[in-house]
Amino acid sequence: MQRPAVSLPTQPPTVAPDAPRRIVRLSDNRAVYSVREVARLLSLSLGSTYALVREGEIPARKLGGRWVIPKKRFHTWLDECTEPATDPEGWA
Hints:
The chain is of the alpha+beta class. The protein has a domain at 32-81: Orthogonal Bundle (Arc Repressor Mutant, subunit A). The protein has three helices and three strands. The protein has helices at residues 35-42, 46-54, 71-81, and strands at 32-34, 61-63, 66-70. A three-stranded antiparallel sheet has the order 1-3-2. Helix 1 packs across helix 2 (46-54). The longest helix has 11 residues, at 71-81.
C-alpha cells in the first residue's frame, strides 16, 4: 500500500508581531535577574541553577514564592569566581 504524498510548505510560517516570544531579553533597567536568566548567562540547566540558588552559592533572595538574583551582587559574585586562582604549589 502506497502512502499519500505530503506537500511541504515552500516558505516558513509567518509569526504574528504580537505573538509571545521565547527569547529572554536581559533588560538593563531592572534591578534583578530571574533564575532562568541567570541559568542562561551561566550556560547551566535551570535545575542546576535552582540548586545553586537554594544552597546559597549564587546570591539570591526569595520574594514571596519567587527567587530573584540582584544584578549587582550577581556580577560581583561572578567577578570573584572568575579571578585566576593562585596555586601555592606552582602548578599554574
